[in-house]
Amino acid sequence: MNNDAFLAACRLAIGEAHVLTNNDDKAAYLTDQRQRYTGEAIAVVKPANTKEVAKLVQLCAQHNIPIVPQGGNTGLVLGSVPDQSGKAIVLSLKRLNRIRAVDPVNHTITAEAGCILQHVQEAAANAGRLLPLSLAAEGSCTIGGNLSTNAGGTAVLRYGNTRELCLGLEVVTAQGEILHGLRGLRKDNTGYDLRDLFIGAEGTLGIITAAVLKIFPQPKAQLTALAALQTPADALRLLTLAQSHCGATLTGFELMSDLCLQLVAKHFPQLQFPFNQRHPQYVLLELSDNESAEHAGSLLESVIGAALEQGICQDAVLASSSIQSRALWQLRESISSAQAKEGKNIKHDISLPISRIAEFIADTDALLQENFPGCRNVTFGHLGDGNLHYNVSPPLNIPAEQFIERQAEINRVVHDNVHRMNGSISAEHGLGALKREEILRYKSPVEIALMKTIKQALDPLNLMNPGKVI
């Protein structure tokens, strides 16, 4: 059958208005978030519910049409856009945007894959609960995308990645069948964990259409502090100190190099820098306390006081209101936008054993300066869970395009050092198409073979997001 017959069947299944074939209508779905790559697609299809997703997948199987599932299209590794062959469809999940249930007693919320993360956070808050998953793109990324990449964010230290927050999934398989797994159970020891197969699979095994997520009691107080330090090693000392003082109330611990905040100051001058002088490193700490603001304040003051007394940090500011706390978080959350305004850069989303982070930064900074003199390291990330965004910007005197041409060389230096220290070249962004070949250098043949076996078993026609991950 030709594409005309396939498209006619799609229109019959979900309505003509939701099958986009005009180039202008498709354009927003074909280009990645960083505006560096544009693919092609037969059409963009926008089903309204799980049954319509299943029908479309069945049609794709019948017509041998590859499927690229897409949520908010905020990914950074080309996982949610099609290749340039023009053979695939983009299946947008944006219309699957209902909150199906909130169960405050079971502490769960059931949301469809196209729900914007921020809207799910708000629905939980309206029920007096907290959905702790939080990241810079929360106003546009979707729950399905968060699950398909096992997103991390700023609260992993306390609550874990998206995988740890998910209790159940509804999935459309590669055959167009519906896996009904929205049970919301914390204990279910009845065989293979199918849920975890689909989380982090980037749509290559099936299409997540809904999920049951854990929610938590709203903390009575959230307090924030920004500490100024000399080195990443001091940041690790501060982390150990904060954990010993605060335990599970420590929910955020973000490392930022001075260059990060210099870029923020340059491109967002309206954001106030809280110190009178600059320091090499900064850590943003947040406590979430279920007892009281006074208790949280006492804990935070004791940590910062001990850190100053022991010479771990040189200065610190404690937010005394939610407005001041928000201002400190804005500094952290504006780093990626400031980098984008500064120009093209080479991004690395890596994870390491926490104990080796300082060593990695020192060694890799030195290696890069030796091989690429003058490059600027924009290093920030979730220190408490070992996730660094280790980004490399061009020297000031070299055009960005010329520097980007050496990306493969720079990646080799960074990724080889990550591997040497038992880390991962993708902590929370996934592999997509961007790192599909790169991962072959670092995963063992046994791991790759097992992944291929799973892919073949669940998607024998290789129609689910082909060319991504493996």
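Second entry:
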Amino acid sequence: MTFDRRIFNFAAGPAALPEVVLKQAASEMLNWQGLGASVMEVSHRGKEFMALYEEVLHDLRTLMGIPDSYEILLLQGGGLGQNAAIPMNLMALGKNGPKADFLVTGIWSEKSYKEAEKYGAAHLAATSALEIFNTIPDEASWSLSDDAAYVHYCANETIGGVEFPGVPEVGGRLLVADISSNILSREIDVTKCGVWFGGAQKNIGPSGVTIVIVRKDLMGHSMSITPSIWDWSKQAATQSMLNTPPTFSIYMAGLGFKWLLAQGGVQAIEKQNQEKANLLYSFLDQSSLYENRVTKAYRSRMNVTFFLKDESLNAAFLAQSNAAGLVALRGHKAAGGMRASIYNAMPLEGVQALVEFMRDFERRA
């Protein structure tokens, strides 16, 4: 099936990119900055790429308000790689040996918890597994340790569609935040966490580069078993170029940052994201066919999960939505149902088209 126009891509990642970003990348593919070569073909240590690299860091600092007391690393390996790197770099700060607390609110934070068990004591401070990861446990039920090096949480669970409404309060303990699927979607106070990390493939650019924002005083505490490539202090000393960096992904991330700045920055895009989410959730709440099962206070603004109450209609829903140019709505295999990922690059028109289709499908069901 082919389309004579761009589809509305609701994929959870790699996700939709702004059309203007794709067009600029296409126009520069064969001749970047008059060099007669693609950005993928030039030296990562050449002056042209190094200037790009510094500009990417500057724009990200501007967008997120990242103070100079934090290092920005542009790494590879994705969030799963950081699930190993984080305990290897931080767990040794535990008062009585390597230890970390985990708030498990979905499949991704569960993966982080299980990976950390390889490097020390991973303490399950809270979990919503019994609620099928449809909520966030009440803070009064959290059992935070006094001797853990840090508390790890996932700010937005891509699969379950659960999002923390703000940075959790953990009594002055060091916080580590996985922001893979809501980075740059809403304003945050960077200083509330010691470490923020996330892949670029949802709100920034294509897959390949992982952003790690780490307070500088937290570097230099890695375990002796830490591979050099996962040692934050060694990466910082080489401008994230201990090995050849993902140059094209960094370039594309830079274009994404420029696009976001042109929209008015994070404050402006947050308003747009809230409008899109409100539109879709409002429709779901009044529907007799569809339902969202996440506690309202913790609904994600990025990944809207929903189910058809008559699941025998799932196949028809997916076939017809795909034919209408509304693609990638099938939910993750671990959760079932449907999922509409409405990241920064998804225009309001895309959500409006989805709601109109869902309303028409409901009338015909």
